[in-house]
Specification:
binds ligand ANZ, 32 strands, Isoleucyl-tRNA Synthetase, domain 2, 3 domains, Rossmann fold, Isoleucyl-tRNA Synthetase, Domain 1
Amino acid sequence: MSDRNFQDFEAKWQANWETSGIYRARDPQEAGEKKKFYGLVEFPYPSGAGLHVGHPRSYTAIDAICRKQRMEGKNVLYPIGWDAFGLPTENYAIKHKVKPEVATAENVANFTRQLKSIGFGFDWSREINTTDPAYYKWTQWQFLKFFDAWYDEDEKRARPIDELPIPSDVRAMGERAVHEYQNGFRMAFKSTSTINWCPSCKIGLANEEAVGGVCERCGTAVIKKEKEQWMIRITKYAERLLEDLEMVDYLPKIKTQQINWIGKSEGASIEFGLFGTESEGVVSVFTTRPDTLFGVTYIVFAPEHSLVRTWLGRELIHNQDEVTEYIRAAGTKTDIERMAEGKEKTGVPLQGMHAVHPVTGEELPVWISDYVLASYGTGIVMAVPAHDERDFAFAKKFGLEMKQVVCPNYPEPTCPVMEEAFLGEGHMVGSDFLDGLPTWKAKDDIISWLEEHQKGERSINYKLRDWVFSRQRYWGEPIPIIHCDTCGTVPVPESDLPVTLPEVEAYEPTDGGESPLASMRDWVEVTCPDCGGYAARETDTMPNWAGSSWYFLRYTDPHNDEALASPDKLTYWMPVDLYNGGMEHTTLHLLYSRFWYKFLWDMGVVPEACGPEPYQVRRSHGLILAEGGEKMSKSKGNVVNPDDVIARYGADVFRLYELFMGPFDQPVPWDTNGIEGVKRFLDKVWHWVEAEPVTETSLELEALYHQTVKKVTDGLEAMRFNTAVSQLMILTNAFQEAGGVPEKMREGFLQLLAPFAPHQTEELWQQLGKKGSIHISGWPTYDESKLAAKTFELVIQVNGKLRDRAEVSSDISEEDAKEVALASEKVQPFIRDKQIRKTIYISGKLVNIVV
Ligand code: ANZ
Ligand code: ZN
């Protein structure tokens, strides 16, 4: 017998698997009748820091599940690649004067070495890299699909832009007019908007990248800036992104995140008249409480509302200076600061303006305040201080009127005097024709009234905003658009894709906030593909989210240069059966990629048969923390490097420990003692599998074995890896007690352990003289009837006299019990030449053979 020495076999098997190609996913025509299983992990950003012990938690878990699926005979796709565009590499390039593609290649090489040293069953032949022109050609091609599409609200799907109905007066004005008209509908469009701007990274951020009012990447406070940006109309898909959550199996907390981010509110939009010096008009507000309409005492605009700017421009506001100063100050605050509860309210009245109540015709003061956001609803609020906390605080501070209209203790004739806003439901008072109605009914009735009088309508609002799709940075996919003075925005012809990144001298954005590409005259200046005249390339690049929005499609057909993937392969592999990744990506990446996929599905790029959702199941793992329970970070110096762990313990110990350390969905601290325990377990396995097998087995051991098959099988399906591993440990201890592994359990035991410790089990499998890899050898099954661990001592009598005892399973059948009795060697002499008159069985106790 030998010592377990991982250096002797881990690298050896890694090399062997690479040559034998056992982890290669078969294309549909090669796969025959085999069922497919597509397991996906979020592909990593190849950072300069290398792999962290947190990354492999997800990869090891899905690897184990894919290994079991493969052993069960499925055609498994378990791919890996690199999400390699992005700021860290670009910042590194700026600092160290290295080309981003060089830094990326180095990081990828290092990550690859690390991942291979862990022995994952990735199909490396399908490796992709978002910064590879052969890949981003298709990202650009898909951008042009968005550009060439509009959303048909009636059919509730995206359609090609040439199917957009053009009004005859527009058509009469000629091609350019048609083009301009289409531009108003395209799924990808350019628009000037106030964006979140990070002054340090010099890039525009989507709301979701500026959560908490700080830049997601560098933590700098975000300011507002006007910028022309490419946008994608994800908002058109809000309802579908919400509804279709019913079709998928995501962790409940992940569904909640999706639902909250989409942020659907139902209510009404209501029109208020506006009067000022030489001006009148109507504006609409969005409210979730139309029932409180009679309680409105003033109207509030967001400070940056465009109407306010127009009025200032036309000098319609009497306190012009005060208002201008207020708007300026509000621009320096983040949305989060502005909306914070309990914050002292600020605002100024728009003197010279007043609003008109749509039902009573009453005149109402008009204010601006930063508690109203320009980007939500219509950017205007009808204030009901008696029933809304923020309005209450505001009215109190500025001495504005309050009108109670919802009464909590109806039918008492008087409402209690209010110390604070009453937010709940009740019955209407002081509300004309709504008086006495419960809240829900008042909502319905007022909406009907408004619709009848054309002063409002039922309305739904979403918090979801359109997707800011521009970056003024270098290291991203160039947006494949050409600007021509004559023809407008012209897509780069498909035959000219990819538009590759040129070599530049400097990667910093220009001071004007333009991409460094803008200073590359040779690259920027082109001839217009339509008219052949002078034209200029778009210099913005795409956000990081682009490449990761469709990578799972590319894995199905990674080398295709005619299409992003062939319809056959997409039909075979999609949807993804199991997708795992960090909780930090369960809001945005998940939403963006679901949206992107739905769009491709609408456009027929993804075949109908694939279904409308890309991921059937989505799970997420808990973080691995540092030994003391803190987050691992470079600055704290508490990062565990997998290289060190593997050099010391080998890959199998590392993998097994990652799955054993705690419940998969919970955060767990790294623990050196824990890893030692796992090492001892694998040593023990080595010893007992190599030892002479035992021939005898007890019923208890047999039951334990069958229980283990069941627990490991179920545990891998339900992602209860830690309990599966501990069950394997219990079984190993039982082998030790029995003095060896029973021959008939040896193979099955190794197979159960194979998804967790692929190297050692492969080595022992070969030592047992098996042909072929354990990883495609089959998956053990269990016998339901043998699961019962309990046994009892069956008393065996002949003519009422004790002749033998036998240990049997407590749920043994009468027939089996009798058979055990008759087969007993000690009983044989007493019954040999006799005639058996009857056999009596007393359940759980004895068999009496009467001769
Ligand atoms: C009147 C009212 C009365 C309101 C009442 C609430 C309670 P959710 O649920 O988040 O969608 N609101 C509308 N637009 C806003 C904006 N741009 N900035 C800040 N607040 C805005 O919130 C909808 C409610 O938030 C709306 O309903 C409006 O106040 C406010 F007893 O209208 B409500
Ligand atoms: Zn042109």
